[in-house]
Structures are given as C-alpha cells and as structure tokens.
Write a structure and sequence with these properties.
7 strands, alpha+beta
C-alpha cells in the first residue's frame, strides 16, 4: 500500500502575494506611462498639423493679396501667424505687396506655445 502525504499548507504565502502585487503594479504604471506618452504625442501632432496648414495658408493669402490676420483659430487653439515679405513684416490684417518686377521672398511662421513652424516661398512678377 502506498501512503500519500496530505499537505496542510494549500494557500499562498505572503511573499507570493507581495510579488504578484508588485508585478501588477509595475504593469499598471507602465501602461499609464505609455498612455500619457501617446496622448502627448497625439496632441503635438495635431498642433503641428494646424501650424503647417496655417503657415501655408498665410503664404497663399499673401500671394493672393488678402489681408493677413495676426492670430488664427485652429481646432480650438489660438495660433499666432507672422508673415515676413522681403524684410517687411506683415502683421494684423496687413496685406502683402505684389512685386512689380523680380521676386519677393515670403516667410510665414505659425506658432503656438513653444511649438512653431516656418515656411518660405517666392512670389515673382515678370
């Protein structure tokens, strides 16, 4: 006849429970950090999308002779727009001048908080 031993300690030890809680905490903290990183990254991509669009629209407005606003709304944020045409700053509902001959360099800078985007183009009249 084979005798079997009965184990009286069938539960978990406090060490096993503490290690499990520690590993779970590390997983939760890692997940929260990843969520925070990706949320910030998505916000910055949205802002850069606005800055790119506003800077290129500023150049298009300058080339077509429209008045240039100093601030523009984009997705609920207020973006500053600065246009520099061949050394002359065009701000606050100013208009760009069309060159009578030759070319004029237009630099459009859109900025929000500590992020900014610049774009440069030439408008020529022959």
């Amino acid at each position: 006849m084979v005798k079997t031993q009965k184990h009286k300690n069938l539960g978990l030890t406090i060490t096993e429970v503490m290690v499990s809680i520690g590993l779970l905490a590390i997983g939760i903290i890692t997940f929260a950090a990843m969520q925070s990183f990706f949320a910030t990254d998505a916000k910055n991509r949205f802002i850069y999308g606005c800055l790119t669009t506003i800077a290129s629209n500023g150049i298009a407005m300058c080339m077509s002779g429209q008045s240039i606003p100093s601030t523009v709304q984009c997705g609920g944020i207020q973006v500053s727009l600065n246009i520099n045409q061949s050394g002359n700053i065009v701000n606050g509902n100013g208009t760009c001048s069309t060159p009578t001959s030759g070319c004029s360099t237009i630099t459009s800078t859109a900025s929000y908080d500590n992020l900014s985007y610049s774009e440069t183009d030439n408008v020529c009249q022959f």
